[in-house]
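Human: Can I borrow your eye for a moment on a structure tokenisation matter? Separate attempts, laid side by side, tell us more than any discussion would. Could you pick a protein and write out its sequence and tokenised fold? No explanation is needed for now; the record alone will do.

Assistant:
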Amino acid sequence: MIQGTGSGVGKSVITAALCRYFRQEGFRVAPFKSQNMSNNSFVTFTGGEIGRAQAFQAQACDIEPTIEMNPILLKPSSEMGAQVVVLGKAIDVMKPQRYHEYQPYLIGVIRDSLEKLSRQFDIIVIEGAGSPAEINLRRYDIANMTVARMAAASVLLVGDINLGGVFASLVGTLELLAEEERSFVKGLLINKFRGDISLFKDGIEFLEARTGKKVLGVLPFINGLQVAEEDSIPESKVKPSGPNDPDKLTIEVIHFPHLSNSTDFESLEQEPDVSLRFLTHVPDVSDALPDVLILPGSKSTMADLSYLRLSGFAAYVHRCHRAHIPIVGICGGYQMLGEELLDPEGVESEVQRAEGLSLLDLTTCFEREKKTVRVRAMAIDSRHEVSGYEIHMGRTNGPGAARPVFQILEEMGEAVERFDGAKSEDALVWGTYLHGVFDAAPIRRDFLNALRKQRGWKTLDRLDVSPAAETLDSLATWIRKHVDLVALDRTLNGL
């Protein structure tokens, strides 16, 4: 089990790296995270919703992601509440007190999921959440030591040296654990080291002497690591001040307070002719407009639509539209592009009706049943195909739907005949419910080449941005080069 001294220390990546290493060693491996809090989610082949990180880790294991790998997913929908997804299905939106009362039932779900995976695989690599030493949350923590105890797992505690204070965070975390909990911790890992690792020898000696725990490895910082973000957007992707890169296409994505599935745009930003930034503030009037503006998915569409108006982003959207800048909406962003959003049953909020941005002639009505399906679709204009998934709680209809963007060919592996999305008469505004649209290289390059033509630039051949296997193999090499593999093997065997 990989636990950390806090959030963001690299638990998800290290878990994936270990999954890949053990897979290369010939083991049947699966990832597991009992409770994940993230709005970046993935749809399994059974239509269940799990955290995107566990889907990536399953990919490292060369297996299909299943709901048991992340039996509980919390999707924040407000400052004090979250949608609770259990075994892939949304149960309800709960505030902390109600969720804590619900946890005894969830312990059984976690145990059953862990036991099912244990029967199918040789090794389970478990990821913890946050820190195991949060005193005020310990009685409610069902993602760290509760799981370690349940699985009788050997724990490796990870500290992030790039943040500073790695000695205090590792020593302090161990000090705050109960004696039984400390006994589960079999070793330490230092992550995101920069510089000459040989100069850290004194640090290793101090940690081992002070804690009585072996430092299994010092993992160097990896520049340009292309893995899915578990939830938050890194600061480097937030739009900086100053002019855009004149030699690249500028793609702006509005950063909603309840943004979901930000991973939809990772393949775009890997393209060499793209500069992609998430906007947290409305650009100045003097700033150059982008080549395209994207409204992404949202976990709370009504609230984020209100945010658009209050923040001035709605006016910015219309400013871009008047300047004939292409505007794209994905999922919740697609819903916002319509004429109105209706919520008669209070599925999303207490607001029963809200005016949309009126860029597409559509109406969305929210429903309690959540649609979570994997699909194979074909772009109507180009005939290129894409495999993606839908995660939403509304239906969108109207005259604008007479100009769909995709034809859905398969849904959960079964042939279907339906259409998705809509576009304006001039095709400058379009939206879709499909997540993963830009992961299809032909569709992505057609999209970018259309923008290049607007600039008068020559078109480019498509780049098949699919570094997953190469990235995963490099993570396994990272483990092989910087972790004591003999000690790791002993730890795995509880020694």
